[in-house]
Design brief:
Layout lengths: L1 E3 L2 H4 L3 H10 L6 E3 L8 H13 L6 E5 L1 H15 L4 H4 L17 E5 L11 E6 L4 E6 L7 E2 L11 H19 L23 H23 L4 H21 L3 H11 L18 H6 L2 H8 L4 H10 L9 H12 L16 H9 L2 H4 L8 H10 L5
Parallel strand pairs: 1-2, 1-3, 3-4, 4-7
Antiparallel strand pairs: 5-6
Amino acid sequence: MLLVTDPGVAATGHPERIARRVTRRGFDVTIFDRARVEPTDESLEEAITFARDGGPWHAIVAVGGGSAIDTAKAVNLLVTNEGSLMDYLNAPVGGGRAPASPLLPLVAVPTTTGTGSESTTICVLDVLALKVKTGISHARLRPTLAVVDPDLTMSQPAMVTASCGMDILCHALESYTARWFGDFDRKTPEQRVPYCGANPIADMWSEKSLSLLAGAFRTAVRDGSSVEAREQMALAATFAGLGFGNAGVHIPHANAYPIAGRVRDYRPAGYPQDEPIVPHGMAVSLTAPAAFALTFEASPERHLRAASLLGSTTTGPDALPNVLRSLMRDIDIPNGLAEIGYLDSDVDDLVEGALKQQRLLATAPREVTGEDLAGVFRASMEHW
């Protein structure tokens, strides 16, 4: 069995403890502890090479945040199927190839409360040469089993909790406000993508996730020792993963990819300081208020319902953006793109990167143009 984790999680001792427990069940366990926080094509290639040179493997266990779980998904794909990583990346960045062979059993053990990767069909990475974030999407990537234990999340630093929590929030909001599934063109089963638009089942998970966040998010950031808040955040992350992993995400996530991929010198507290990074959840959140202002007219009732679940008592196009800004300020998310180093002169470059995420933009409840995205980016330079 191959156990995939990252250096920070490995230092907690949890992966080694899990490996010992698995060994007692009769498995030989090899630990790969070099998964990168916010994976890149280079870091995934390193993990894939390690796995291909070892083995043969009967199963894979991922212990860590979404970065470790996504690394394990890529490894699982490439040790069971021929070709290169680029072959499987979503088009137009990569070849969009579907796996031809079944994958190994994958057990996901999340240690952060954010990505919901333990319940999704998606692996996300930065392609360094293109300065863009993209992913691989296929039903076979979904973990076979998820073990969600809030005790493993208790030592998350405050900014990690805040950033990961904003990822949960945007997963739930974007899937809840996505284009209705019945409005998409019907396709044969093999042509259908994992993201199928808002639908009654995804709505159920998204609404529950939003309700949990409303009661637990601020507490989890301010008091990381709150067992109840950690439990509710863990549930919210998995529930939102079940929602967006079915319905999809749209503008904030599309914008997040170039925001993270073109970072210059931003180093957030609580994360590795050896190189610049904009954590995924933070990158998603930074344009969310302006993005939901843009999509309001496409489904006012859903935007207002979401705002209400988060505690808003107001109505109108600004209800959801305002409740988001208030939350972001309370949990110390940066005050817009300017605070993490972006300028108005960067907008065209950011728009170009976001427009490459057509798989995500297609799920938006309204058509999105480059001019629309430019307006969202400019409105997101400063929030308060």
